[in-house]
Predict the structure.
Amino acid sequence: MDYFVQQLINGLNIGAIYALIALGYTMVYGILRLINFAHGDVYMVGAFVGLGLTKLLGYTTSIPGYNADTQGHSLWGGLTLVLIGSMVGAALVGMAIERFAYRPVRKYSRMTTLITAIGVSLLIEYLFVAQLGSAQRSFPSLVKNEAFNLFGDVRISMPQIIIFVISILLMILLQWIIYKTKIGTAMRAVSFNLNSAKLMGINTDVVIAFTFALGSALAAAGGVLTAQYNPSIDPLMGIITGLKAFVAAVLGGIGNIPGAVLGGLVIGVAETMVVAYGSDIGLASSYRDAVAFTILILVLLLRPSGLLGSTVQEKV
Amino acid sequence: MKKSLSSLIPHPSSLKLMPPFIKRLVGALVIVMVLIALNAAMSNEGFYGMGLPYYYSHLLRLAGINIILAVSLNLITGFTGQFSIGHAGFMAVGAYASAFLTVYYTQGLEQKLTAMMGATAAQAIVFLIVLLVAALAAALAGLVVGIPSLRLRGDYLAIVTLGFAEIIRILLVNVQKVGGPTGFSGAIAPWEGRATIPQYANFFWIGLFAVVTIVVVYNIVRSDTGRALISIREDELAAQAMGINTTRYKVVAFVISSAFAGVAGGLWAHYNSFLSTQDFQFFRSFEVIIMIVLGGMGSITGSILGAVVITALPELLRTYPYEIVIALALIPLAAVLLRVIRRERLPEVIRSGWPHAIFVLVFYVALFLVARLVLINLLELDYRLSAMGVNISNYRLVIYSALLIAMMLTRPQGLLGHQELGFHWLKRAQKRPVGDASVGASGGVPIAERDAPTADPYKETENR
């Protein structure tokens, strides 16, 4: 039982990260009907911007160096600065992608925008590989890696607590933005019907840019938080995580914000459970990545609108 | 009714009266003989001393495999409009199935056949059997993937096919008998079999199957089935309303295209002699997509062109990075310049038809040479960049993806659009644009998608 709860906590943890990234996918799809393939790479960019900021602020990984482990306590100020800085940086990157790559092809067919999205994703990945090399780099720990005993054998570590706390805070912030601010109402209007929103005087270009910025900021937060939990980052880390987060968004109903969160948590828990208990039924842990895709296929076959999505009838 | 002996000699005009079957048979034999001759030329000593160095023949063989992949993907994506990013998965199925069969099961058969009819014929028969199995396995995979997925639209189908390709890859990585994560190059202990995957696929086989693929897809497209597929691409609801069983046609196209992908996989396995699931990752699928988008999605000749260009491009970027970047960066500039010149100062004779085509070609080449002269010989850009520590070959793939994005932004219909390359191009007169409107004002956006797909729920045509 304790093992199960431990795996549940680990799963929810990974799921929270997937949820943060899935929110970006689902918001962009909601307003533009575009699957932003480059979103996983924005997650990676966020982690690397965070790395750059830690270097700027003087935190290093080496021992003796200046990080949470050598100092003996978590560097909350540093964490906040790095988090906010990487969110801003990734927001700028997201807005640039939208402005230069997606806006000119908005009027073209679906396939063109999809290919452009994949092209942007590849461009970002290879740019980072060309500049920084594809080797992994380690992120200095800003959160002290201590573990707390919850009950019995169940332990939770400080980075995990931080991931839970910050992702919950960010999601509450997102809910507030979407339901209690003017720009949020504008986002909801644009996702309902772009042309009518334009007729109502909403500047859709600004709203779209803001949506991209918001989604990218969340993904970057996910990137920095993951780096606390798993300190090695590399330029290709966004691909598979991005795909799984996309599956999470589809699982929850793409375009649906609580759905993205639910989807992320489900995928995180499912993946962890398969790895934890899979050996009992003959599944090697290398099947881990197949879990997300299998869930995707099952969802799209059985309930294409997702868990919380609504079916829209096709009209001629 | 006196028949003289001279009536037995075929007169040139009677060639037209030859039954189509005979014509096609003769054509096939001619092609086969040409391929055999070219194959002999592909080794270093080659055909009476005229050989091709290994580097170029290697590229030609890769291009051949890519042609099979591109043309088969074009059937399902370009002609039926179903966007599938899972092609590498079917290639993997074909590759692993054929390699598995060759390594573990065909040794005895080949020895028996060699005793009967000699090594070359025996190898040929074994190879054909193995490729047939590869095609069937991949077709079966296509059926399994296609039947549930093909009721999804657009983006969702793309993601599902991607998911299936990844699942296939992960499943294959976990099969120990085909090497698992370390790759497959021969029989794995403790199972008995050949020591290596024999290199059956030479230029002849690759060329032969490329020709077969092109002929089959061409015939499908020009048939009633092809018309049904194109109608599904243009407007699926209207096709259904006209009584076309869209699911059946989509599945058929999907299965045929995956079968050919399996053949390509089998050829690849027996050319490379080493199989690793790393070869079949998402980027491979995406490369094939780039090939058909570059060439034009509804065009068979376009996908052949795209396959050749994309096969050659990484190698070209390795040796001539600056030249390529200059050439492609200058195309917009050249287009503007050309427009200006075209209107005012071209003499009438080279404003249309093949003189115009030659003029445009010469113009671009001249512009490219001038730019090269200025940038590399005069300004010595390559030395300055490497002195700054920028190693351009690291940026090959960056240039590659930037080119893709630039192509999507400027010419999304690809090089040939929906047209096929043919000699009628040179004869067609270039009409002078009316006023300021360019010829083909829609910019090549297909009919069914000319309206911007805005977020309009009353016109929603997707499965959510």
Summary: Residues 17-246 of chain A form one domain. The mean pLDDT of chain A is 86. The longest strand of chain A covers residues 147-151. The beta strands of chain A are 137-138, 147-151, 154-157, 232-233.
